[in-house]
């Protein structure tokens, strides 16, 4: 009975809802540095905070110029996804890391590592990152989707 009263109170008492998509602040890329002892391995230092409960990770985009890295033709199907689930969910205003290598098994354990990406970055390429959020939508309106944020700034691979 308590649950029924709670549910009715929640349904009729909660008037602060929205059907618009949640917007998140894009990550800020601070630096990209080679990882010592890992061939073609890079650590991307970034600042992010205040992720939503529907946080789904980060996507790494690589391009030959700044525009190609920030604005790929297909945001959902292009880019590199995090291998496995994000290691931690960022909610503190500190620096976090993304790590990239041709083999993620070669990456050493790192504190504050959010994701690893199994790909090869070449010197002179541009990188950009977008936050991914799950958008809960009724099935008659297209169903749940992953929505990327606006792009981060870009960095050039050293």
Task: Sum up the structure in keywords.
mainly beta; 9 strands; five-stranded antiparallel beta sheet; four-stranded mixed beta sheet; single chain; globular; 158 residues
Explain what the structure shows.
This protein has 2 helices and 9 strands; from the N terminus they run H-E-E-E-H-E-E-E-E-E-E. It has helices spanning 2-13, 66-70, and strands at 28-34, 42-47, 55-63, 80-81, 95-101, 113-118, 126-135, 145-148, 155-156. Strand 1 (28-34) and strand 2 (42-47) form a beta hairpin. The longest helix has 12 residues, at 2-13. The protein is globular and about 60 Å long. The chain starts with a helix and ends with a strand. The model has no long low-confidence stretch (mean pLDDT 82).
Mean pLDDT: 82
Q: What's the number of domains?
A: 1
Rg calc: 19 Å
Largest sheet entry: 5 strands, antiparallel
Using the alpha-carbon principal axes, give the shape. globular
| Helical proportion, percent range | 10-25%
Helix segment tally = 2
Question: How many β strands by DSSP?
Answer: 9
Order of helices and strands: HEEEHEEEEEE
Low-confidence stretches: none
Which structural class should the secondary elements be placed in?
mainly beta
Share in β-strands? 25-35%
Distance between the termini: 63 Å
Describe the structure concisely:
By secondary structure, the chain is mainly beta. The protein is built from 2 helices and 9 strands; from the N terminus they run αβββαββββββ.
How are the elements arranged and paired?
Elements lengths: L1 H12 L14 E7 L7 E6 L7 E9 L2 H5 L9 E2 L13 E7 L11 E6 L7 E10 L9 E4 L6 E2 L2
């Amino acid at each position: 009975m308590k649950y029924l009263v709670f549910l009715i109170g929640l349904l009729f008492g909660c008037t602060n809802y929205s059907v618009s998509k949640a917007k998140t602040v894009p990550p800020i890329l601070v630096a990209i540095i080679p990882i010592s002892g890992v061939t073609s391995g890079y650590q991307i230092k970034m600042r992010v905070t205040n992720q939503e409960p529907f946080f789904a990770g980060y996507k790494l985009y690589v391009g030959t110029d700044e525009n190609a890295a920030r604005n790929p033709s297909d945001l959902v199907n292009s880019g590199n996804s995090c291998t496995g689930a994000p290691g931690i969910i960022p909610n503190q205003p500190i620096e976090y890391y993304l790590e990239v290598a041709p083999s993620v098994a070669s990456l050493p354990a790192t504190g504050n590592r959010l994701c690893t990406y199994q790909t090869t970055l070449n010197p002179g390429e541009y990188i950009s990152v977008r936050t991914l959020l799950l958008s809960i939508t009724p099935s008659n309106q297209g169903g749940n989707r992953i929505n990327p944020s606006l792009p981060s700034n870009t960095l050039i691979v050293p």
